[in-house]
Amino acid sequence: MRARSYAKINWSLRVTGRRSDGFHDLETLFQTISLHDTLTFARAERLEVTCDDASIPVDETNLVVRAARALGVDAVKIHIEKRIPPGGGLGGGSSNAATALKVLSAMFGIDASLPEIALSLGSDVPFFLVGGTAFATGRGDVLTPLAGVPPVPLLLLLPEEKVLTREAFRALRSFSAPLGLERSRAVAGDLYAHQGELVNDFEAPVFEMLPRLRELRERLLGAGASWARMSGSGSTLVGAFRETASRDAALQRFSGLRAEPAGCVARGA
Ligand code: C5P
Fold first, then answer.
1. Secondary structure (DSSP) of 154-205
2. What is the whole-number distance in angstroms between the Cα of residue 166 and the centre of ligand 1?
3. Which of 98, 111, 219, 258 is 20 to 30 A from 154 in CA distance terms?
């Protein structure tokens, strides 16, 4: 059994306040994109997780191991083909965990509350159970699926720099006012008309720590992107283009850096 585990970007990401449980309240527009890892599942005598990227720990800290443990599954071998860089703000580990929860619960006929288990694994994991375009509040787990956005050619710049989400939250200096569901629905319905509202509160503190990321965002705009922002708490920069041809031309201008074309993925893909 093989399953794709898609990455996400945030069209916008507002941090609206600090909570009493140590987390922060967010308001975000999530989007699954075509960049994906591939997970392969096979019945086995014990739980074993392997990954083609040696830098990814496959011990008890791995979110796929934790997802299997949370479901009480201990007789499966899972291999991860890793294409989503860790520490890139693309939710790779969270996506892998959600994919494991979906596949393993079906494979072993487990009737469990997946959203609840997902949130216990990480704030972004519940979104990946849903995918597509979604509005989220709370820790990112209070989700409203939205109509999918029209096809948008994207260019991802995946720098070597890694950002620890916890540290990005710690570096935040101010919070934003939320837009609310209806306004956010209108924003998602016509992204280019609402660029002023597609902000990411992590850009200021993260760009201060890693000024090269700000330069890369400016280079994306200089290369013809109609919109460019950091995804999540970084370090990935995302450019959105009006035409596939202009995106493909821009791709040529980022040699010496991992740059990948991508598209949006609809819910249920
Ligand atoms: O939930 P997750 O494990 O992805 O979060 C990693 C860290 O990011 C948390 O320990 C917390 O410091 C911070 N975080 C937060 N508010 C959120 C999500 C994450 O403060 N909504």
1. EEEEE-S----HHHHHHH---------HHHHHHHHHTGGGGGGG--BTTHHH
2. 6
3. 98
Structure tokens at 148: 């999918």
Residue 2 CA to residue 124 CA, distance in Å, equals 22
- 59 is a catalytic site residue: no
pLDDT for 241: 98
Return the best residue to mutate from 18, 143, 169 for the ligand 1 pocket (most ligand atoms within 8 A of CB).
169
- Work out the mean pLDDT of the chain and round it to a whole number: 97
Instruction: Give the CA count within 13 Å in the CB-facing half-sphere of 218.
Output: 6
pLDDT greater than 90 at residue 77:
yes
The finding on whether 139 has its CB within 6 A of some atom of ligand 1 is yes
> Taking the chain, what is the end-to-end CA distance rounded to the nearest angstrom?
16
pLDDT at 269: 86
Mean pLDDT for 176-185 is 97
CA distance 118 to 100: 10
